[in-house]
């Protein structure tokens, strides 16, 4: 019943009976339970048709809260959000994921405590969602051989945090959460969407049938380690050679610019170069877009999405990278697949993963996906 | 309610009430309607708990029939099947898809008529499912610029056949239907499966969330036109260069064998060569497997399937091709993605597309997927 109400429209008991096919008694007891938990709120009496006044109800996203954490390589955010992922309050800080789970999760948990305390919402917490910069086995919430997260391999993140907060803890990689967040916030009606992050690393989150496609072990969307034909034998940090990430992400671009005598260290420096009018940096971004575009042409052939969203640091430096992507994807893919394909910049920006972490928790806690998948 | 019953287990009205959450009245009227249509059949009285004897019901896949047609480039099958895709009777013949829709669909409709007449099942027909060897816009049932189907571009197949049979007509490309058939018959419990056909062409059908992923325009799974780095500039019939199909499908292998002075014309000749003990043919198949394996390593990174099934003519010549695929996929993909990946030969064989066409029609006609997607 709650799934029906998540669209936010107010409805009467009678309307809920029609929409769910449940009898009057079942509707009544379910509504009572949801009112009791605060997830539904009355919105005043509708026009009566005689007898008991048919009060309307509406889903109240502010009735409960979520703790959402977005952990990057060197930056972390912990937010208190409502059930739709809107931030109520948050902390962000320079952290180092390489400090390991004890230190980093200790920080998450202290900041979360502070947020719950400050807003008096401890009893309203439905769950904790955590995004990390590496592959995660979603079912267990454990990172699996994450290349830039020393000390985290196999660490039981849910156990560590649920012992403290006594609610479900869900973990996923940051790109999957960005895809969930961008989908929920900007493209909720789209069934087939591909979200691509291009920054110091490259990754993708795939929406199929309107839902995040995690795959058998949660590693779907691993675009960064797809083979590129442009590497010429370059070693990737994963151990393979010529991975897309080793050829077209921030460090590779920075290295090529340095080879031209241009001062650049971190991925963010490339952004500053472009903003300062560097033609060389713009040309490198466009070429990176073309190389990524070749991998995305393969994704288009395989998945035929309606929308490809490009996000991450390197997509925020003008249109150079997205122009290179468009150039190759529209050249390389078959007409049927690109006829109505849109290639767009991300709308959600830096808080995409926070929104996604909250959406992941809400969907899990309210049993929305489970209901949709098993109902008859 | 029917969705619950499709597992074939007998249930009472009371059990259906529990499983569906419907009230006694709703269950009663739905059961009556399904009994009336023959989709449910009574299976004798269960042990009574007092009052009216709680009769059990079971889904009866033989209660209705489907016409399933599998049209290849040079071979066609028209079958009368039950709702699970088991063939009751069929015709197969050498046809030429290039003769165009009037002639080919005329043949389909004459044979379908004959089957319905012969078995007296005209009134039991729920729908017609058609597989064709080219891209199809699934929502309209029209082929879209199919390279080997001259005269079919944009042709309204459903209009042509439904005017005759007055039932829904669904069309998809043959590889999607093989994926549906193999999934239903051999791997019904697997949520993430990739079916790959390797024959005169190369294509894939993708199962995500337990359902066929067709993509925005129905062109998902177009593995044959993914770029390979092994082409060296070879022209593909689609107009692009170095497509996987132009490098690793039957005609490319035949050309390489001819260059070695070996007599081979059609794809099936390669099979005969391998059976006759040709080392050269076996080596070409293994190398084709490696080249296809590179594309599949990308699929594994993107989709993280539990099972990859290899089917089509060239996979039936011993284990050479599948061995090449395994060699590269297990080398190239990350451990998390391949830890529990199985790469298997197809079990359904030649009738995979017929089973798939019937399953597509049954799911559509009984509203199973719709119910699952919209229920609350």
Task: Walk me through what this model shows.
- 2 copies of one chain form a homodimer.
- The two termini of chain A are 13 Å apart.
- Chain A folds into 3 domains: 2-60, Orthogonal Bundle (Arc Repressor Mutant, subunit A), CATH 1.10.10.10; 65-179 and 352-370, ATPase, nucleotide binding domain (Nucleotidyltransferase, domain 5, 2-Layer Sandwich), CATH 3.30.420; 187-347, 2-Layer Sandwich (Nucleotidyltransferase, domain 5), CATH 3.30.420.40.
- Chain A is globular.
- In chain A, helix 6 crosses helix 13, helix 8 (250-259) crosses helix 9 and helix 9 (267-275) packs across helix 10 (279-303).
- With 376 residues, chain A is an alpha/beta fold.
- The first copy, chain A, contains 14 helices and 15 strands.
- The longest helix of chain A has 25 residues, at 279-303.
- In chain A, the strands form 4 sheets. Chain A has a 5-stranded mixed beta sheet, sandwiched between helices. In chain A, strands 13-12-11-14-15 form a 5-stranded mixed beta sheet, sandwiched between helices.
- In chain A, a hairpin with a 4-residue loop joins strand 8 and strand 9.
- Chains A and B meet through helix 1, strand 12, helix 10, helix 12 and helix 14 of A and helix 1, strand 12, helix 10, helix 12 and helix 14 of B.
């Amino acid at each position: 019943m709650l799934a029906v109400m998540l669209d936010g429209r107010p409805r009467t008991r009678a309307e809920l009976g029609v929409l769910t096919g449940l009898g009057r008694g079942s509707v009544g007891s379910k509504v009572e339970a949801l009112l009791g938990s605060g997830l539904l709120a009355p919105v005043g009496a509708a026009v009566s048709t005689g007898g008991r006044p048919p009060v309307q109800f509406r889903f109240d996203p502010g009735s409960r809260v979520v703790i959402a954490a977005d952990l990057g390589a060197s930056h972390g955010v912990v937010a208190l959000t409502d059930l739709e992922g809107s931030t109520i309050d948050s902390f962000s800080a320079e952290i180092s994921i390489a400090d390991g789970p004890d230190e980093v999760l200790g920080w998450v948990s202290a900041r979360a405590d502070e947020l719950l305390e400050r807003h008096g919402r401890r009893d309203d917490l439905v769950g904790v969602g955590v995004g990390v910069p590496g592959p995660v086995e979603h079912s267990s919430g454990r990172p699996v051989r994450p290349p830039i997260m020393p000390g985290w391999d196999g660490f039981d993140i849910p156990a560590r945090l649920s012992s403290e907060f006594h609610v479900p803890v869900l973990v996923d990689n940051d790109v999957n959460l960005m895809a969930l967040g961008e989908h929920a916030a900007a493209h909720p009606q789209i069934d087939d969407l591909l979200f691509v992050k291009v920054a110091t690393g490259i990754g993708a989150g795939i929406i199929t049938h309107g839902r995040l496609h995690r795959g058998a072990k949660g590693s779907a969307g691993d675009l960064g380690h797809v083979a590129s034909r442009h590497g010429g034998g370059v070693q990737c940090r994963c151990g393979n050679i010529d991975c897309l990430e080793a050829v077209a992400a921030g460090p590779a671009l920075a290295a090529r610019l340095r080879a031209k005598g241009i001062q650049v260290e971190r991925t963010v420096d490339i952004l500053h170069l472009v903003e300062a009018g560097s033609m060389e940096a713009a040309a490198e971004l466009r070429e990176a877009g073309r190389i990524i575009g070749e991998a995305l042409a393969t994704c288009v052939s395989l998945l035929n999405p309606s929308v490809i969203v490009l996000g991450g640091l390197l997509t925020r430096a003008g249109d150079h990278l997205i122009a290179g992507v468009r150039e190759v994807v529209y050249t390389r893919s078959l007409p049927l697949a690109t006829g109505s394909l849109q290639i767009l910049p991300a709308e959600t920006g830096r808080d995409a993963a926070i929104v996604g972490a909250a959406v992941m928790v809400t969907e899990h806690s309210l049993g929305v996906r489970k209901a949709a998948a098993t109902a008859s």
